[in-house]
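Progress against Task 2.4 (sequence-to-structure conversion) is shown through the following example record, which the project officer requested during the mid-term review.
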Amino acid sequence: MNSDPTPHSAVQPQRTAPVAPVSGATPPARRSLLRAALTGTAVLGAGLAIGAEPAVAAPPTAAPRKRPTTAEEALRELAAGNRRWRTFRQQHPDESPAVRQALTTSQHPFALVLGCIDSRVPPEMVFDQGLGDLMTIRSGGQVLDEAVLGSLAYGVLELGIPLLMVLGHQSCGAVKATVQADESGEALPAHIQYLADQIRPAIDHSKTGDARVDATIDANIRLIRSRLAAEPDLAAKVDSGALTIVGARYELTTQRVHRIG
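Structure tokens generated for the chain above:
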């Protein structure tokens, strides 16, 4: 395709006199830089923003769901969530942009879960819950100390959480180590011995082998629940009907959570 461009030598650039900026006014380039800096998107080089993400369409948002306000409602929600988890029908609730934004100013968890540190038993996953739904405290074998008690008290006394669940689990390593150390008489390393000392009163000596470990897991859940129920501040909430404390156990083989009386 032929073209007839104007010869380069014939194109004369237009010259204009520079315009002096108005006294006291900020030049446009500086105004843009200041505006970018104030909004956290200062420009670097050719249009690249420091720390900024590429512009993408916002995903659909869902309004925050109605949260349980009583222990009975909380237990039903946890049971429903665990059923979704073990049947591979997770909903991954409360992760939407709307929920994330709402949680920047307040939180209203509906259940407090004291669980074990075991990596296979994360409460938010086994109950299919999302951001702001559960307050979780985890220690080896659900062992209590001042930090754990203070954390639990905060959830109950300051946030008004109506349900406190002690969640043990099948094949608990802390319980197994305690039983084995009790049988062998050997001390455990460093601070692990503290965990064993707290769990040892729950050892079920009426059984042997794996059955002893399994029975001790249940007994330890009951022991911790009874200790919590004896805490004066928590007991007062239980007596007033504002708090329910329950024991439960997670089965690794079936992914089911069930109550321990």
